[in-house]
Structures
1.
Amino acid sequence: MSLPLRYKICRWPQAVKCLSNNSRKLKIKVTELLSNKYIHGMMIEVKHAEIGTLFAAVIQGEGEIVSNKTKEGDVLPWMTTSEILKQLLKFGFDITYTERLTLDSQTLDLLITLRNLGYVKVTKLVVACRKEDGTRILKSTPVAIKSEYNQDKLVYGTSISYKLFTKRVISDSIYNLQDISNDTIKWDWIDAMYGIDDILADNSDIEDFEAWVGETRIDKNMPYTSPEYNSDLTPYDSTLGG
């Protein structure tokens, strides 16, 4: 039997290049949920050519069909990266995920500008607003903050009243990133409290997708999805439907 395949990725869309050690009929699909009003996030699936979806997980999800807390007020978390990787391993995908943010140049340029203006962290705050009819709503809002003026808001997902939020935006201690969200700049990757300096350091030396057969590193330029790659290098077992 051939040596098993292993992979290292630094963002989930790279997972579609990974092949299963169990069967050639198993594939990973990554879908960005961006274009609908019901949910915004990313979905990772394991699909079998004949059976269909065998595993699915949503990450960084929010929207009108998503409940964030139980009726008792307990947080309902999404699966962690570690938990998802264990499920992928069940289907033969041996993947290591390096926790690094890989952002486009426009977003990085904007973060550099914000850092030069004194903002040191990016996160999301839950802003409590009211509609015209008086209904209270909670809106998850991406922001950049100056830590020295926001010691009470240095936890991801902290609530803030609309009045206080507006006051701090006017005083330039909080920058509402939603105001500059557009087709090219997105903030869906903000799922924690991040230091801007840390983000910029991560993106100064990005590790690309990596693959091994056993302990042998494979050339980055190899066509990972080619039939030759599948048949020659993947240790499929015919008893597993490969």
2.
Amino acid sequence: MLILAVYKIRKFYKDNNVLEEINTKAMVMHVLAFGGYTLVLLLLEPIGICIFIEPYKLTCLVLFEYAVVPLYFIATLA
């Protein structure tokens, strides 16, 4: 959805011949940040489901311990 929105914004500027006013770098950074945040959420979801279904299963807990810190760090950066 975000990529479609960025495409429509760019198309609007291109159709009105005001491409020099669009900040392409900021738009790319926005897409990358949102994409990184979304990716982290998609990676954390199965771990959360695993812990919800079997809260005392060692595999789920170990996976959570190793995955949550780097993924939250990436989400914070995004």
